[in-house]
Amino acid sequence: MKNIFKKITILSLSLSLTGVAISGCKDFLEVQPKSQISISDAFSNVPNATNAVIGVYDELMGDNGYGIRINMYYPYDSDEIIVSGNIDNGRRGIGRYQLLLTNAELRNPFLQLYRGIEKANLCIEQIPLMAAYTNGSDADKKELRRLHGEALTLRAQFMFELIRNWGDVPAPFTPAYKQTDLFIPQANRDETYAKIIEDLKIATDLVPWRTEAGVRNERITKGAVKALRAKLAMFRGGYALRSNGKMERNADYLTYIKIARDECADLMAKRGEHTLNPSYEDIWRKLTSFQYDPQGEIIFEVGAGGSNSNSDSRMGNYNGPSVNAASRYGTGGGGLLALPNYFYAFDSTDTRRDVTVTNYAIAATNIKSPRRLGELTDGKFRKDWRVPLLPGTALNPGYNWPMIRFSDVLLMFAEAENELNGSPSAAAIAAFEEVRKRAFTNKNNPAIGKTPTTKAEFFNAIVNERYLEFGSEGIRKFDLIRWNLLATKIAETRAKIADMKARRGAFANVPQYLFWRNNGEEIQFLNSFYKANTTTTAPTGWTRLDWTQHLTGNLIDGLPLDQGIARFFVTGKSELFPFDQATVDAYQGKLKQNAGY
């Protein structure tokens, strides 16, 4: 989607002083910006201050932001999605949890997040000092307060991403030019969380609601601030890997769970601002067609545009179903695989399954062919849904990244209510059921099931519903970490795929083979995904597809799929990334490496 903001280059903002210090690179220091402007000029009037905040937004997107690495490399492997291919010292090393300190995919996103913080720090410091902030026209004061709130929120988002990937990180809250030592020590993440959660409380009063602002959801509004504050509070109230190598949560966790509950309740009371799109598929059809959703289910999304690695995205090119470049849809897909157990986690009537998981590839002739059970891909950002089509070999489809949706708000509310009350309240059950029932065309479908009423059972239902609702949205791994369930779910996934391979237990009726043919460009299957079939010979006019049979081979790193998933995961280590070697070296012994590395 074409970003509502234009790219700018400002000397004081485009070169992060924090980034300079970490890199220690002479060439970097000598980069000449395309235009130069002093800090006083950058904040001399509302248009210039707006440009400065646009510069903060810029650091969200691109290959080192939520264009590919942070949102599509860092959240995997999990129990839903894994990275395709065999291990390397890059994205697959991240996915398999064999993170060497020289992994090429760690450093640049780390630096970009700090560039975002540095730019935000300048805006947060300078905008309230502007004369128009207190003495300007009502319109100027309103706009500058909005910009101030946006900068506070963006800084919180950058800091949150650093914490959930690296744990205790340096947390600068003043611009680099004011720091006597750029190599500031690591901060306790609980203190950092407390600071940014309080910042978001301030930002809530500074930014307008979506309907007041009259803008699309590529710009932060009050709903986005509240939703992010709720999410940060849930993480602050959850488990985290500590420097002692143990997964722990703090004794005051309920204080933060209550903050999350209250913020979600406020959002749920403003249905004119944000609510569920009644169609799950329509959320993603609109996103891939660059259409605005008047329901506002996507509360905030990172804008992409420019067809380049700095400001655009790779969704649909890197991930999604494999698409031949010679087709009408253009090149794309195959970077992420949806696991067999994830496909079968959905009820056959759950409309989310065939949106979230794709079982086809597209040939140069535009004809679809089926993928085997170990080759399924994610589907929300698929290239063949793009309107208009983007034929050829373009790398950047321009899809925005959805940072948070209203269904997340509903399920966070339900989870927090259950935790605070010791059992699910009527309001918690209603919020949970609103998300679950949306997934089924028939709202009386027995597959919807009866909502549990005990604390433990309701929590397990929330864990499962978030699994089904947010596939390939970069959420699951981090949810599992804050629940201290990542190791458990990885083990369960391996066991389920082993059972599926042997067609035993819950997977006894999964077919060994499927039979298919093309109906025009589409695929037609002869037999069901849910009924046992060991017939090896295809009927006349049909082609045999290995289904569970495909799982018997070596699919990842020369191993069976159930053994290759998250292959090197170690509890008490792998929940966090290491600091890359170049960063450790630059800090000259002042940066403590994470446990186990």
Intertermini distance = 39 Å
The proportion of residues forming helix, as a percent range, comes to: 40-55%
Mean pLDDT: 93
Please report the total strand number as a whole number. Answer: 15
List the uncertain runs.
1-34
What is the strand arrangement across the widest sheet? 12-11-13
Instruction: Identify the overall geometry.
Output: globular
- How can the largest sheet be summarized? 3 strands, antiparallel
How much beta, percentage-wise?
5-15%
Helix-strand category = mainly alpha
Question: How many helical stretches?
Answer: 24
Description:
With 597 residues, the protein is mainly alpha-helical. 41% of the residues lie in helices and 8% in strands. The protein is built from 24 helices and 15 strands. The chain has helices at residues 11-14, 17-23, 26-29, 39-42, 46-58, 69-73, 91-95, 107-126, 131-135, 138-166, 189-204, 210-213, 222-236, 253-268, 280-288, 340-343, 353-356, 406-421, 426-438, 455-469, 476-482, 486-502, 561-564, 581-586; strands spanning 81-83, 240-241, 247-248, 298-302, 336-338, 357-358, 360-362, 368-370, 377-378, 401-405, 513-519, 522-525, 543-546, 554-556, 559-560. The strands form seven sheets. A three-stranded antiparallel sheet has the order 12-11-13, with no helix packed on it. Strands 1-5 form a two-stranded antiparallel sheet. Strands 2-3 form a two-stranded antiparallel sheet.
Features:
disordered N terminus; 24 helices; 41% helix; 597 residues; globular; two-stranded antiparallel ribbon; mainly alpha; 3-stranded antiparallel β-sheet
